[in-house]
Every structure is written in C-alpha cells, then in structure tokens.
Amino acid sequence: MNIFGFLTGIRSRKFIFLLILLIGTIVRSQTVKELEYLLTQPELTSKEKIEILYTLSRELTYVDNLKSLKYAEKALQLSIELKDETGIAYSYRILSSIYAINDNYFMSTEYIHKAIDIFEKNSNKEGLANCYISMGHIYRSLNNRLQEINYHKKSFEIFKDLGITERIGVSAHNLGESYYNNKDLAEAENLTRYAIKINDSIRNLPVLSSCFKVMGLIKVNEDQIDSAKHYFKSILKISEELGKNSQKVATVEAMLQLAQIAQNEGDSSLQYSYLESTEAYCNKFHLNQPLLRVYKDLQAFYLERSNLEKVNYYFNAHNELSESIKRIQLEDRNRLTQSMASIHTLNRTTQALEKENAAQASTILFRNISIIIILLFLIGFFLVLRKLKRINKELTEQNETIQTQKEELQELNATKNKFFSIVAHDLRSPLTSLKSFITVLVDHLDLLSKEEILNMGKQLSSSVDNTLKMTDNLIIWAKCQMNVLEDRTELISLKEIIDEVTEIFMVIASNKGVALETSVIGNPKFMGDKNQIEFVVRNLINNAIKFTPKNGIVKLSVTHTFKEIKIIISDTGIGMTPEFRKQLFSVQKPKGRNGTNGEKGSGLGLVLSSEFIKRNHGDIHVDSVEDRGTTITVTFSENQKVA
Length: 643
Fold this sequence. Notes:
The chain has helices at about 5-10, 15-20, 25, 30-40, 45-60, 65-80, 85-100, 105-120, 125-140, 145-160, 165-180, 185-200, 205-220, 225-240, 250-265, 270-285, 290-305, 310-445, 450-480, 495-510, 530-545, 580, 605-615; strands spanning about 490-495, 515-520, 525-530, 555-560, 565-570, 620-625, 630-635. The strands form two sheets. Strands 2-4-5-7-6 form a five-stranded mixed β-sheet, with helices on one face. By secondary structure, the chain is α+β, with helices and mostly antiparallel strands. It has 23 helices and seven strands.
C-alpha cells in the first residue's frame, strides 16, 4: 500500500504527526503524487512544508521546469517568512539547477554561490556538499572536466566525514561518472563499485541504476562486452521493478547501448527489438530529447536495409519532434522568464531581511559591549583575588622551601656525623690493633713463637687491608659529597669488567669455600664511567661472598636486550630483614655487619654503589629473605645507548 492510501485510511493525528517527523527519510522514496498529498496535511509544520516543497522541486527539476520553479518559489517565500536561512539556501540551489537546465549558466552560478554563502555562514556542511554537487553538474554541462571532478570530490569527502550513507552513495556515483567523462577509467571503476555497494545495501534503486549505467559504459570502453551487457540488463530489471519511479536516463542509455552491442554482434533482430522498446519507453514518459537519438538510430537501421519508406518516416518524425521541442522550450522559457519576476521580488525581500538582520546585529553588538564592560569589571575583581591567592601560594612555597632546606641540613648533619663515626670507630680500631701488636712485639718478642708472630701478622695485614679499603671509600664518598668527583663517560664493555673482577674474587671465594658462578651472554656495551661500574660490581660480589657461608653459592649473570642491560648478583647467604633492607642505601642509619667469617664492613660500599649507579643513569633493586639469601639487580636502560 502506498503512503497516499495509507493516510487516507488512517486519520489519527498522533500517527500522522509521528509519520511527518520521518519525512526526512520518507520523501526520498515517495512519488511526486504522494509528496503532493503530504503537502495538503494540516498537521505539517512550516519547516516540514519547506522540506517537502524543496524535495518536490528537486524531483521535478529534470521533468517539469515550470512546476519545479513553482515549488521552489513557494519554498523560498515560506522560508523568507520564517526567516529560515537553510530553506532560503536550498531554494537558491534549486533555482540554480533550473537556470542550468535552461543554459543560463551565469544566473545558475550566481544562485548557487548565494546558497553556498549561507551554508558557509551557518557552518552547514551537508548543505554545502549538496551545493558542490550542483556546481559539479554545472561544470559537467560546460565540459569543464577538472572543475567537475573538483566539486564532486569535495561533496564526496564532506559526506564521508558526515557519515550520511545515502549521500555518500550519490556523491561517490557522481565522482565516478566525472572520472569516466575525463577518460580515467580505473578511478571511475573504483568509485562506481564503491557507490554500487552502498546504494545496493540501502536499496536506493534509482541511483543504483545510474551506477550500473556508468559501469556498463566503462566495460564497453574496455571491450568487456559480456560484463557491459550484464550491467545494462540489470538496469532494465530495476526499471521494470520501479515502473514510473525508475531512473529514466539510465534506462534509455541501457537500451540504446544494448541495441548498439547487438548491431556490433550482427544480431539485427535483437537490435531492432531494443530500439523499438526504447522508442515506446520514451513516448510513454515523454522523454523527447532521448527520443531524437532513437529516431536517428532507427533511420540508420533502416538505411542499412534500404527501407527508404521507414527512413523517410523516422526522418520526418525526427524533424517534427525537433521543432516541437524547440517550440515547447521557447514557450517554457517565456513562462520561466515571467515566473522569474516573482523570484526577483522574493530576492528583494531576502535582501530586506538581511538588512533587518544587520540592524538586529547592531543591537546585539551594543548589548554585547555592555556585557563586555561588566565582564571586564568582574575580571579585574577576579585578578585582584588571584593576585592575593598567588601571594599566599608564594608564601606557602617559601615555607616549603625552608622546610626542604631544613631537611637537607639534617641530611648533611647526619652525613657529617656518619663520617666522624667511621673515622672515630672503624679507622681507630685497626690502628689500635696495630699499636697493640707493636707493643707485644717490643715487650714480649722473646716469649712469642715464630708461628704466633706469623698469625698476628696475618691478622694485622687483613685489618690494614680493610682499613685501606675503608679509607679509599671515605675519600671517594667525600668527593661525591663535595661534588668534585668527575664522571668519565665512555663506551665500556661489561664483559671485560666482569672478567677482571671475577678473576680476583674467584680466589677469595675459593679460600672461603664458596662457589662463584658467572654467566655473561654476548658482549654487552653501554656508555658509562668504567671505574664507577667496576667499583659497583666489585663491591656487590665482595658483599655476596662476605655474607655467604661455606659451601654456599654466589651467582653473577648479565643479560641484555636492545633496550636494557641487567646485572644480577644472587647468593645463598644470611639475607636481610625487611627493616635492614629498607635502610640499606641510607648514609644515616645502616651499620656495618660482620661477614660469616667475621669480615669487617662499614656499610659505606653499598651507599657508594647506589650513588655510582645513579650517576650512570641506572637503577638498583634488592630482594632478600633472611637466612635464605639475597638477589641484587642493577639495570641500565636504553637511555645509556645500550649496544
């Protein structure tokens, strides 16, 4: 059941109102008669009337110029009364199309630019894209292919951005046909296939017919005749399905192309059948311009068969139709010219409306200036408040700075205390032992055996070695605190450092009964200070051996990727408590612990190791479980140009 019959049977105001809300989609698929019936419904709002009037005018543009002009005039008049700029712009677009059909391209361009100006001012992208379609058709009529492609491409891109499926399908078809007109068959085929996919999915059969027409012409040009016939016959199927709502230009073109193909294949019977069908179709729908072409083709058909009677008949028919078309066009243009007078009056009304809008704009400007003055006062008040807030913030920041400085002073004081503690205790102790040993040697040398003197010497030597190591660490640490230690960055080989350090500690570990295992994959290199990195590795291995009992294991492994290098040192030693681990790298709190064989330590080595790792842009992480061992991971990242 069509919409006319449906509305006649159902008079529910609520139903009709809901239906009218869907006019934006309904009008695309209804016949002119049904749209004209919708126009009579009292439930319509003025804006809905404008949309239907515009749609009727658009549908009739290529069918009945005068009727199209009448609807465009009504749409323009109603839009002016409502001060509906969008309606005015769309009316201008239709007027542009009407002028273009009548070969008045100057006026056509003037009206389309008026519409474009309105749509641009209101940032109406959809309206702008529709105007670009009209501009593309104008330049197509003028055979300006570059501009034709340019405007159809603009409309296609806008509709794709907006995501309006139906208009994407139309604009893709227009652009594809423009590329075909410009002999760019590859681009034309790509776009037309895209348009076919969209229009087929939404069942927009009239546009689908036009797409098939372009595809058929492309295949004819590519000499793919079977494919061309498929597309042209598809058009005829759609035309039969749509009846009077079919795309008539595409239908006529399909029949004429099929007739030409039949002629080329030598099938004169099929050629005549298509020409005869085309003639009947044109007469049925009053398609006079295509009918002229049919008459010429029929003349040629009968001329090849020497049927002079038929040749003469179609020659006369062609001349009569041609004269009739000229006469009708002249009458239409006379009536069109008369109708344009009322359009001119409406344009003057539009100009008056624009002046009124300008006056309103002046009033709005005065109001806006007053608002701005008030806003300036408020802004001034706000700035004063913000300044007070900023002053308060500065005072807060100064207090925070003072607090930070206080904490730094406390840290420095703690560092100083630690320094003196180490000097007073850890250095004094071995010196006291040395003095005691010398006193024993001086006072009781005769009473001591050679073995006792040798044992005391070994103990004293070990004590002195620890003292020297501690002294070196103290000097380095002091330099760090005074910022006089220089970093010497170079490309260092971690494998070389590991090999050198482990060669020394293999003996120490073996003497203690601890297994030292190393694993270095490849030869990882990175930018850093070799002495500092060597100190870190040496200190960490030394600590691992120191706190691992006999028969324990110390493992050192190095892994690397393009992004980082990891040095992992793990042991099966005595481990650490969580509390001890937290203050491991703090100069204030850690106490030196004796190793499993009584080895002495101040805790300063780990503090320095942490400092050196930071200086080389690395990171250190400690995992430890008391009585089960410790794992320390040192990571140097991609910022160090790992190689």
